Task: structure prediction
Amino acid sequence: MAKNGVYCLEGEWNSDLRDRASVLPILELLERLGLLKFIHRDVATRSELEHYLKKWSQARYSDYRVLYLATHGGNGSLQWSQRNATALDDLADVLRTSAAGRYVYLGSCRTLFDSGQARRFREQTQAAAVLGYRKDVDWLEGAAFEVILLSSLANHTGRPATVFNQLMNRHAGLARLYKFVMVTKDGELRSQDHA
Result:
């Protein structure tokens, strides 16, 4: 089984409750293949976000080293529902140091648009790495990339840059298309910088 569990909080993709869009099948596929273990919860409000992030900080979930926030996004924010958004600075305040030494993957469009804000978020949370996108992401192509990314993160124990470099060596096309970035204590790794 994977070395790092994935703790996924997923926002509402559509206000129509009949819409069944979800990242849950991605997680279930990877679990069935024995590539990761996961916890998945739906989040639509700030109080739900705070509740589940507080749970993630508990010692019994310490082996869930990948926080996967799957939702709509915008420049420097995560959109949990039509009326509930969280700016990266606010998310850092909620997380405090519970992400220290762990990965925070922002599976949302354009959330890491601003380099300075992304670096500040990583510093405030003390995360081993913060990962995300600078452009809008297509649902299907994004799902394909996430299968590879989540599997890599769940089975990685070395330096965060190693995961990034492996992704660039094998899957640079999709990463560059959506301007995928990883921010670590050593700096910012940009897919656009890899030929």
